[in-house]
Design a protein that fits this description.
Elements (H helix, E strand, L loop, with lengths): L5 E3 L6 H9 L4 H4 L8 E6 L16 H18 L3 E4 L9 H10 L4 E8 L9 E6 L6 H10 L15 H12 L2 H16 L6 E7 L2 H4 L5 E8 L3 H8 L1 H25 L6
Parallel strand pairs: 2-3, 2-4, 4-7, 5-6
Antiparallel strand pairs: 1-3, 5-7
Bound molecules: zinc ion.
Length: 268
């Protein structure tokens, strides 16, 4: 576990089954019977260190903005009784592959990657949420994926169909229902973030490296355009970031409620 990973675990959320499993030296899945309650969320702040991400005309860097939002989101979710793992908690570069191992090692129930958008047209603004797919839903989604995938050293640009390892992962995602749940979280986040405004730009699909090997429902949220003056002003303000965090908390808790219901687990 890298030094930059911070954990905030709430004691008791695992219940008695976990205690038995721990005493026997078993992991929960080995017991077979205990359903997987929604209790662990991986919050991934995009970029970091030399990888600065997008930048606003006023000099607000994506890496700093999304770290502030991620930490605030982690605090709020922990206060709501959810166990949270941050893939980075300071201004450090964490390779995309390492972010997915952190998530899988922690056996997260949801992976939320937080980013801010950029485009050449300064009039474009709003919220976009993505989930993993081999094919981008449109040219713009494909450009967003190319930009966010830049931190992935070995393979520049989006993954190509025919990549066997990737196909296996996609097959796994489909068979385990992660695609459907990823889509569900993306829709909840999009609806909450864009509520009461006309800033919703929709849920899109694109081949994001950071999402592809994550063994849990996963979504990448672009919380606004740093290249748009209004969006940048909103994201620069404490109140604006608070609204974004509030929306993500609501989406996460509602997703968790549905997640447990589907698995026959009642509310806590
Ligand atoms: Zn980004």
């Amino acid at each position: 576990m890298p030094k930059s990973v911070s954990r905030s675990r709430i004691a008791g959320v695992f219940g008695p089954a976990f205690g038995v499993a721990a005493a026997l030296g078993l992991t929960l899945p080995a017991l077979g019977a205990a359903p997987d309650r929604f209790d662990t969320v991986i919050v991934d702040a995009g970029h970091g260190g030399d990888d600065e991400g997008a930048v606003s005309p006023g000099g607000l860097y994506e890496k700093d903005l999304v770290l502030a939002v991620a930490k605030q989101l982690a605090r709020r979710l922990a206060a709501a009784g959810v166990s949270v793992v941050l893939t980075r908690s300071d201004d450090t570069f964490i390779p995309l592959e390492q972010r997915t191992s952190i998530a899988n090692d922690a056996r997260g129930d949801l992976f939320v990657s937080i980013h801010a958008n950029a485009t050449r047209d300064p009039d474009v603004r709003g919220i976009e949420t993505f989930f993993m797919a081999l094919d981008a839903s449109d040219d713009h989604a494909s450009r967003v994926a190319r930009r966010e995938n830049r931190a992935f050293g070995e393979r520049k640009g989006p993954a190509q169909p025919g990549d066997d390892a990737l196909m296996a992962i996609i097959g796994d995602l489909i068979s385990t229902g992660h695609m459907e749940e990823s889509n569900e979280f993306a829709r909840l986040a999009q609806a909450e973030l864009a509520a009461g405004s006309e800033l919703g730009r929709g849920v899109k699909q694109a081949p994001f490296v950071v999402l592809e090997a994550v063994q849990m429902p996963a979504s990448l949220v672009e919380i606004g355009f740093l290249t748009n003056r209004s969006d940048a002003t909103e994201m620069s303000s404490e109140a604006g970031r608070q609204r974004i965090v509030d929306a993500l908390v609501r989406a996460t808790l509602e997703f968790g409620r549905r997640y447990d219901l589907r698995r026959g687990i009642g509310t806590r």
